[in-house]
Each structure stands twice: as C-alpha cells, then as structure tokens.
Amino acid sequence: MPKSSVPLLAAAALAVAACLAAPAAQAVEVRAGVLRVDYPALLPISRYDARPEDLDFAGAVLADEDNATTGAFLGHTYETKSVAAPPEGALAALDEMLAEGIRYVVVDARAGDLLALADRAAEAGALVLNGSAPDLALRGAECRANLLHIAPSFAMKADAIAQFAVWKKWPRWLLVSGSNPEDRALAEAYRRAAKKFGAKIVEEREFEDTGGARRTDTGHAMVQRQLPTFLQRTKEHDLVIAADATDYFAAYLPYHLWTPRPVMGSAGLRPVTMHGAHEAWGATQFQTRFEKLARRHVTEEDYNTWLALRVLGEAVTRTGSDDPAELENYILSDAFELAAFKGQKVTFRDWNGQMRQPILLYDGRITVSVSPQEGFLHQVSPLDTLGLDRPESDCTAFQ
Amino acid sequence: MKSLLLTAALCLTASGALAGKAFVSNERGNTITVLDTGTWEVITEFEGGNRPRGITLSPDGKLLYVCASDDDTVRVFDTETYEELYTLPSGPDPELFVLDRSGSPLYIANEDDNLVTVTDTQTHTILAEVPVGVEPEGMAISPDHKWVVNTSETTNMAHFISTEDYQIKHNILVDQRPRYAEYTDDGTRLFVSAEIGGTVSVIDIAEDGTPTLKQKIGFEVPGVLPEWLQPVGIRATSDGSRIFVALGPANRVAVIDGTSLEVMDYIMVGQRVWQMAFTPGEEFLVTTNGNSNDITVIDVAAQKAIKSVQVGQQPWGVAITPN
User: Fold this and answer.
1) What average pLDDT does this structure show over B16-32?
2) Chain B partners within 8 Å of A70 (Cβ)
3) How far apart, in whole angstroms, are the C-alpha atoms of residue A178 and residue B210?
4) Chain B residues closer than 8 Å to A381 by CB
C-alpha cells in the first residue's frame, strides 16, 4: 500500500501542475524595444519645436500601460525597453535588444540607418516598425519584408494637403522648397501630388540653405527684408506650398510673402499624424492620458510610437501569440483593424507594409481638416488615395 | 360657463400631467433641454454642469441623474423644479452610467481612469471601484440585476461584472471602440456596438449569465462610405423583436429584426446620431443628433422619423420619464 501511494501522490502533483500550466500556456510576455537614433541637429526655428528628452519614449510608456490594462484580462504582459543612441551606436544598441530576446523594435531613424537596422533585425527574425522615416523608396524598391511603416510617407502627407487644396478649389501652387536632399524629396512629393489630383505648380523657387543665422537677435529683421524680394514677380497663384523637411525657412513664410496667399505644407497648414489639440473621435481621452504621464503635449513622434506598440498589442490580443511571423501575418491581413482616434480604423497595405491612416491638417492650434477629403474615392479604401497605391509601388518583398 | 371653463382648465392640467418629459443632455452647451413628449415642444432648458453626457432617471421619474464629465461628479436634479438637489460621488470623468432598476446603486464608467465606480444613490457613498479596460464607456445591467456590463473603447472588450462581489467574471473581445451595451428584457441576449469596427456584436447569455459571442452584424447603406457607418447607441424593444442602432455620422438609425438578426431598414435622422430612448409603451424612439443640434422622433411601429426638434449645443444623451 505505502508503495503505491508514491506514484499516486506524484500523479496528483502532476495533475495540479497541469492545472496550473493551463493558464500559463496562454500567458504571453511581450517584450518590445524603441530605438531612437539621435542625429546632431541645429536648434529648431521655434522653441516650441524643441525635441523633448523623452520624445518617442513617452508614447511607449502610454502604449505599455494601455496594452497592459487589456493584457491583464488575457494573461498578457508588456514591457518595452527604450534606448537613444547616436547613429554610430545604433546597430550595437539593436544587437543588445536582440540579444535580450526582443523581437519587435520601433525605430526612429533616417532611411539609411533604418534599413541597416531592419536588415540586422531580419537575421534574428525580428520585426521593425518605422516610426519616422518618410522616404518613398522605403515603401517601394527598398522595402523590407520585416519592416512595417507606421509613419506616413512624404507622398501620403503631400497628397493629404493636395486633396484639401483641390477641395478648396485652390489649384495654382507656388512651390517653395529647400535645397537639402530631404527638402528636394519632399518637393518631389508635392509635384507628384499636384499631378495626381489635378493641381498645377505654376512656378517653383528654391530657397538655398546657406547655413545662416536662424534664431538670432536680428534674424527676423533680415528675414523681413529678404524673403519678400525672393518671392516677388511670380506667376499668379492661389497657394504657396512649402517643402522644408529640414526646418530652416518655412516657418517664416506665412507673413513674409510678396503676394498674400495661404501657406501649406511645412508651414501654415501642416499635415500631421497627431497634435496636442486634436479632440475629435475620443482623442481627448488619449491627450489627457498622455499629458498626465508625460507632463507635456503629445508630438507626432510620440503618437507614432504609441500607435506602433498598439498595433503590436492589438495583434497579440487577437492572436494570443508572440511569434513575430504570425503577428506580422495577422497585422497585414484583412482581419486586422485598430482604432487610433482618427474616426476610422487604421489598417495595413499588404503589398508594402505601410499603415493606412487619415492625416490631420493642423494650423498650429486646431485640426482644420482631415484627409482623405470627401469625394476622393478608391476601390479599396479612401485611405488608399493617400500615398503610393499598389500599382505604383515597386515593392516585391511582400509577395 | 364659469364651471365649464374650469372643467376645461382641469382637463388641460390633467393631460399635461399625463404627458411625459424628455431630458436631453447638451454636451457642449452645458445644459439640459426638457421637452414635452405629448407635443414635442421644448418646455425649458437649464444648466446641467460642465460637459453633461450620460443621463438617466430614477425609477419613479422624480430624480434626473446627469454625468457632468468635466466636473467629475453626477448631478442630481428635481424633474419638476429642475433644481439641482445634490451631487453624487462618481470618480473622475464620468461618461455613461446605468441605474439599477431598484433605484440604487448607480454604475458609472470613468473614462479617464479605467474604472467603473459603484455609487449608492441613497447614502451618496462609493461602494466599489472596479478596474476595467482602457476608456470604459458603455454600461448595461442584466434584467436579473446580477451582472453589470462595461465596454472599454481601447481594450475592445465587454467586461461582465458580478453585482455580488464587483469582480469581473467574463470578458468578451468585440470589434474596435465598443460604445454601448444593451440587454434584451428577457436577459438572454446582449448587443454591443463597435463604433470604429462598424459592427454590433450579438452575445448570447446562458442562464447562469455566461456570455458567448454569437455573431456580428454589419451595416451597408448605398451611397454612404462604409467608414461612416459607426454604430453607437442601441435600444431593443421590450419584446426583443426590434433592435435600433444609431449609426453616428451616417445620420441613420438601423432597424434590426430581433429574431433573424438581419438589418431591415435604415431611418434617416439628424446629423451624428448618438444615443436614443423610448417613450413609455415604446410608441416613439427619440434620438440625439450631436452635429445638427436636434433630436429626431421616430414612430416605432411605422419605423419612420416624424419630427425633429432643435435642442441645445451638441445633444448627447436622452432620458424619458416613465408614465
């Protein structure tokens, strides 16, 4: 008798263990990373645009809280590691994350570094979420199967502005662009948008970046004399489009034109993913949660990071998995949808990994309008009127 | 002659007393509009606190409860004098609530704090705070008083809270941004709207209260972008035969057959239709239309809108006195 009691006890213990293991089998521990690459940069034109130290990271903290609250009902936990690195230290920072077992990394970096990071992540089977780089090539020939784009492309933002201008019946544009490569890429997006929506760029001016004084005591006096003369004797236009991705002159444009016209693009009415005054569609709740946590207003970068991690959280919630390949499949599938305080669900383009999302048109104080505009239709989704559409994309990595 | 006039006056008073009142919370105007449900004329408008949204009545119709969201309190008004009697502790940012049919407690969704607050309306004290998902909003109570359902807009769940111990016993994942929950009167079914998902989830309720997701109902209106079909408020007739769903910026109320769960009809109403309430006897259904600042009165039997009446700025919710 005593002999048999041992295996009996063992069996009972095993049964208890099995019962305990049942919920444990469903438990998922999601570990993600946010990697922000800090480039040497000049001060912004406006102090309001100074980069907060916790840029991106504050969005990650909020996303962890949101995901964890939901996860608590499902046995899912979330932990995100946030790291800032100089460009030369970015790969090492990523390697460290990968070594710790992190398989989802939100990256805020320029296109070249982003690609190098995505390729390194691919070797470890990790998924990268692009939180900032707007380059079109990343959504075209340079796309990567493990790289999803939360940030809109230059083309999506330019199209958002173009639709609004066309809706307003302001089709004649004066394009004023900067001379840096990023500024030229942005200007190209506006040329493309004009053609796509039937607007006309009547004239272009390139405002050369001579590295001059930006925010000096006498800067405004210089600007007041120089800018109007630079912009005189242009053809008749309804609108000035500013393409200044590097933030060195556009902010001065609205009140220093020769001909009084509205400015859109890099100044005046700007296309953004989010801003701190947006209230529609329940966004007030997002703003108050963010402000309580970060003690400042939200930026586009914070929102993009929050959204990237919410995409991850939503996919984990619905699939109960933490396998990067399975999650990416779900994210790119028709089943995926996510509310993002923009009045309609955000989804992904399964041919290039770009998130479809409405773009807010922001004047520095309020949401003036939201694109896509009424009347711009598409056979799949009105959101596909913004940015590269399937036939225009050279991306083959997702096939 | 004199006595005749007197009789007439008495009759008028009597019929006046019989007609009910509809109370509409005006989110941006910070007021409550009072309408006569016999004539559908506005009787008066009074101050309702800052950002009034959720609105309901005590079972006897004498007390009006209003979620004054930006005041972090529930304001209680006399439905005859419109005077504020007192406030109830609600937790921060109360958005929507549901009152137990006995008149207490009040179950309040605190949108900013991921909580449901349970408040005793007699002792004016908080009985419990129940942690729920992110951005709690929709609230419903089962006819047997045993369950309170809360929907959380960012977590995308319906949480089933036992009223015995205020613990969550079940969670059902629904589509994006669930806004409202409504039980059928027999308690066998629960409907949950998902504003961004564009669907209504139909959840079957077992005898012990256990919920099972049965199916999701989608909507389709020719000439209206699918993105605009955003279900918010839901009302089921007491016999469960018709389910009415407010479709937000689609400016329509969908009518669903309670048996086949097919959409039968779409009724055009005002702009950005939000919440709804039946008159006693379910003769009429009143909708609040946030962007056109009016209400629409729907003839329930005919399934037709018969009247719209201007109210205050951005009407949000509506409550109608019982007979």
Assistant:
1) 87
2) 133-134, 152, 154-157
3) 63
4) 227
B284-289 and A347-348 beta bridge pairing: unpaired
Q: State whether B176 and A343 contact (CB < 8 Å).
A: no
Average per-residue pLDDT in chain B? 93
Q: Chain A within 8 Å of B138 (Cβ-Cβ)?
A: no
Contact check, Cβ <8 Å, B134/A70: yes
Token reading at B317: 């919710």
Give me the number of domains chain B comprises: 1
- Are the beta carbons of A261 and A202 closer than 8 angstroms? no
pLDDT value for A399? 86
Same domain, A322 and A298: yes
Q: What Rg do the C-alpha atoms of chain A give, in angstroms?
A: 24
User: ipTM for the complex?
Assistant: 0.86
Considering the domain architecture, whether residues A178 and A106 belong to the same structural domain is answered as no
Residues sharing a CB contact under 8 Å with residue A353, sequence separation 6 or more, in sequence order: A139, A143, A144, A145, A147, A148, A149, A332, A395, A398
- Residue B19: Cβ-neighbour burial (10 angstroms; 0-12, 13-18, 19+): middle
* pLDDT confidence of residue A42: 84
The answer to whether residue A118 is domain-embedded is yes
Candidates B169, B172, B196, B316, partner chain A, best to mutate (most A CBs within 10 A): B196
In tens, the pLDDT along A211-255 reads: 764 544 456 667 788 888 899 999 999 999 999 999 989 999 999
A337 — contact with chain B (CB < 8 Å)?
Answer: yes
Domain region containing B185? 21-320
Residues of B in contact with A344 (CB under 8 A): 196, 227
By the 8 A CB rule, do B139 and B67 touch? no
Reference A274, options A256, A251, A301; nearest CA is A301
Q: Do residue A172 and residue A33 come from a single domain? A: no
* A13 found inside a domain: no
CA–CA gap between residue B162 and residue B142 (Å, rounded): 10
- Peptide bond connecting B131 to the previous residue in cis, omega within 30 degrees of 0: no
3 state SS of B45: strand
CATH for A332: 3.40.50.2300
Rounded Cα distance between A371 and A367, Å, is 11
Instruction: Count up the domains in chain A and report the number.
Output: 2
B175/A338 CB distance under 8 A: no
Expressed as residue numbers, the domain containing A245 is 155-272
Spell out where chain A has E strands: 28-37, 76-85, 104-108, 127-130, 147-149, 172-178, 200-207, 239-243, 263-265, 270-272, 347-348, 355-356, 359-362, 367-371
Substitution target from A76, A290, A317, A344 for chain B, most B beta carbons within 10 A: A344
Domain identity same for A227 and A255: yes
A residues 55-94 lying closer than 8 A (beta carbon) to B: 66, 69-70, 73-74
Q: What does B75-86 look like in DSSP terms, one character per residue?
A: EEEETTT--EEE
Taking only the tens place, the pLDDT of each residue in B199-233 is 999 999 999 999 999 999 999 999 898 999 999 99
What tokens were used for B275?
């919440």
Name the residue facing A345 among B134, B171, B197 (closest C-beta): B197
Residue A225 CB neighbours (<10 A): 11
pLDDT at A8 over 80: no
Residue A5 lies in a domain: no
A66–B134 CB contact, under 8 Å: yes
- What band does B4 get if pLDDT is binned at 50, 70 and 90? very low
Asked if residue A292 lies in contact with residue A387, where contact means CB atoms within 8 angstroms, the answer is no
Per-residue pLDDT at B10 exceeds 90:
no
Percent of chain B with pLDDT over 90: 90
